[in-house]
Amino acid sequence: MSVLARFLAAIGQAVIAMLSGVGRFTLYAAETVSHLARPPFYAREFLHALMQIGWFSLPVVGLTALFTGGALALQIYAGGARFNAETVVPSIVAIGLTRELGPVLGGLMVAARVASSIAAEIGTMKVTEQIDALTTLSTNPMKYLTLPRVLAATLAVPVLVAVGDAIGIMGGFMVGIGRLDFGAATYLKTTVDFLETWDVVSGLIKGSVFGFIVALMGCYHGMRSSGGAQGVGRATKRAVVASSVLILAANYILTEVFFSA
Fold this sequence. Notes:
The chain is an all-alpha fold. It has 9 helices and no strands. Helix content is 84%, strand content 0%. Helix 3 (58-80) packs parallel to helix 6 (141-178), helix 4 (89-127) crosses helix 7 and helix 4 packs parallel to helix 8 (197-223). The protein is globular and about 65 Å long.
């Protein structure tokens, strides 16, 4: 076989493997969603996942939003000063956080914390045959492990995004009145005047989609792990990387849908 033929064969194998992975993930996602309409529903697992994903992710999301809002205010002020447009700082901080930075950074922080945790937990159960034991006990692993986590993340991440938006705007407000000599009343009035309802709602929709992606990728790679501790480590890494990439890709698609001219 010639060098060109081997090169084309390698490309073909990579493409086939990628399409196969996309197909498996799509079927897994469809099966997960289909279980929403079929009993039983494990409320205890759902509440536990809601607490782990939502409440315990709040500190990291809040701190990220706070410092991002402050840094954004400084950068916009420095850039606006070149064109005598320093007054746009409050409006741009609010719009930038609610539309883009709030949901994206919140989703990435949750992906780093939650996708890795879910993949490690389910991957450990897989390699120690605990999932096989659930099946033996007539418990569907998809309904018991995947559905509660995916549903909890889909509902919790938008709330985290909303809280992060508020904290991020507060961070910009603190920097604006403390470092940039804005008046508190003027800063708040400009923020309220320029911020629209759709700016906030679009970010919350993005947060819901990102939460679904994060939990689903964690469960998917955890379920597919094998090979002991090394396999669990690989599943955890793949879950975080795949979640992060899909969040950025989904963010572009949703932004195009929501705000295209």
